[in-house]
Specification:
This protein is mainly alpha-helical. It has two domains: 213 residues, HUPs (Rossmann fold), CATH 3.40.50; 72 residues, Orthogonal Bundle (Tyrosyl-Transfer RNA Synthetase). Strands 1-2-3 form a three-stranded parallel beta sheet. The protein has a two-stranded parallel sheet with strand order 4-5. Helix 3 crosses helix 14 and helix 10 runs antiparallel to helix 13. The structure holds adenosine-5'-diphosphate and tryptophan.
C-alpha cells in the first residue's frame, strides 16, 4: 500500500500534531507492506507565510522534526514539495478540469478567510495543489486529520474528472485514512491545541520554555485536599495521553482521591513529556548541528520519488498533448 501525507511548515510541531498525525505515519511506516511518502508542504505554506527566510527555515525544521520523531529516511521517502517542479505542473493540468463550483464549496478557504488570511487565488486553488501532491505518486491511502476530509473528497473528484476527460484511468483515485480513535488533544487553555491559537506545547521547545508552558496549563480552583474533576480537565486529558497504561490507575487516583495539588501533577506531566520525547529531542539537536544530512535526506527522497512521478507525468503530458 502506498501511503502519502504532508505537513505544512507553518510553525513548530506540537504534541497535537504528534498524536494526531506523526505517530500514525510512524505506525504505518513500521508495517513492511507499506511504502511511505512524507513531504514538507512548503508551496502550500506560501499561502500564509510571506517571508522567504522564515519559510525556508520552517521547512528545514519540519524535515528535521520528521526524522527526529522516527520517520526513517531509509524506509520512507521524505522530500520537500517545492523540489518536485512537476507538482505545480500537474496542479495546472488538474485545474483545467476542476469545476469552479467544487472549489467554491470549500470550507477550508472560507474558514481561513474568516480568520484574516488574504483571499488570494493560491488560497482558493489550495485543494488543487493538494490533489496534485497525492495523485502524482499514485498514493493509495492518505492519513489526515478530520479537517482534511473535504480536501480528500475534492482530490477524488478531480482525479475522476481528469480520467473522464481523457478517457483513460490515468490517475489513481486515493482513499483517506482518518483514524476515529485520534482524540483532539487539548491545548494549555483547554481549547483544541493549534498553532493558530497560541496554546501549544511544542515537542522541541527548550526545557525551560516547556516547563513554563506546562505550569501555565489552565486548572480549576479545587483545593489540594479534595478530589479533582476529571471530565473536561485539560491536565487529566494530557496526563492520560502520556502515562503508560500500567501506571494509569495510580495517576488517576491522584485526581479521584484528593491530596495532590495541580502543581505536582504538572511536574509529573512535564517529566512524562521529557521522557516520551527525550530521545527525539536529543536527535533533533544533533540534526540542527548536521543540516547537511537533512538536506541530503531531502535530496535523496526527491530522487527516489522521481521514478513514479516521471511515469505519471509522462502519461499525463501525453494524453493532454503537452510537453
Ligand atoms: P495546527 O492546527 O496546529 O495548524 P495543522 O493543521 O498543521 O495543525 O495539523 C497537522 C496535523 O496535525 C493534522 O493531521 C491535524 O489533524 C493534526 N492535529 C493538529 N492539531 C491537533 C490536535 N489538537 N489534536 C489532534 N490532532 C491534531
Ligand atoms: N493541507 C494539509 C494540512 O493543512 C497539508 C497537505 C498538503 C497534505 N498536501 C497534502 C496532507 C497532501 C495530505 C496529503 O494539514
Amino acid at each position: 500500500m502506498r501511503i502519502l501525507s504532508g505537513v505544512q511548515p507553518s510553525g513548530n510541531l506540537h504534541i497535537g500534531n504528534f498524536f494526531g498525525a506523526i505517530r500514525q505515519f510512524v505506525a504505518l511506516q513500521n508495517d513492511r507492506a507499506n511504502e511511505g511518502y512524507y513531504f514538507v508542504a512548503d508551496l502550500h505554506a506560501m499561502t500564509t507565510i510571506k517571508s522567504g527566510a522564515e519559510l525556508r527555515e520552517n521547512s528545514f525544521k519540519v524535515a528535521a522534526d520528521y526524522i527526529a520523531l522516527d520517520l526513517d529516511p531509509e524506509r520512507s521517502v521524505l522530500y520537500r514539495q517545492s523540489d518536485v517542479a512537476e507538482v505545480p505542473e500537474l496542479a495546472w493540468m488538474l485545474s483545467t478540469v476542476t469545476p469552479m463550483g467544487l472549489l467554491q464549496r470549500g470550507h477550508s478557504y472560507k474558514d481561513k478567510v474568516s480568520k484574516g488570511i488574504t483571499p488570494t487565488h493560491g488560497l482558493f486553488a489550495y485543494p488543487v495543489l493538494m490533489a496534485a501532491d497525492i495523485l502524482i505518486v499514485r498514493a493509495d491511502k492518505v492519513p489526515v486529520g478530520r479537517d482534511q476530509k473535504q480536501h480528500l473528497e475534492m482530490t477524488r473528484n478531480i482525479a475522476a474528472a481528469f480520467n473522464q476527460t481523457y478517457g483513460e484511468p490515468i490517475l489513481k483515485v486515493p482513499e483517506e485514512l482518518i483514524l476515529p480513535e485520534v482524540a483532539v488533544v487539548p491545548g494549555i487553555d483547554g481549547q483544541k491545541m493549534s498553532k493558530s491559537y497560541g496554546n501549544t506545547l511544542e515537542i522541541f521547545a527548550p526545557e525551560g520554555e516547556l516547563r513554563k508552558r506546562v505550569m501555565s496549563i489552565i486548572t480549576d480552583s479545587t483545593p489540594v485536599s479534595e478530589p479533582k474533576p476529571t471530565r473536561g480537565n485539560t491536565l487529566y486529558a494530557l496526563l492520560k495521553l502520556f502515562t503508560p497504561a500500567a501506571q494509569w490507575p495510580e495517576t488517576k487516583r491522584l485526581f479521584t482521591e484528593g491530596g495532590t495539588g495541580y502543581g505536582e501533577m504538572k511536574k509529573r506531566l512535564l517529566g512524562l513529556i521529557l521522557d516520551t520525547f527525550g530521545e527525539a529531542r536529543r536527535r533533533r539537536e544533533e540534526l540542527d548541528r548536521d543540516r547537511a544530512y537533512v538536506e541530503e535526506v531531502l535530496r535523496r527522497g526527491r530522487e527516489r520519488a522521481g521514478k513514479v512521478i516521471g511515469q505519471v507525468m509522462a502519461h499525463c503530458r501525453r494524453v493532454c498533448g503537452v510537453g
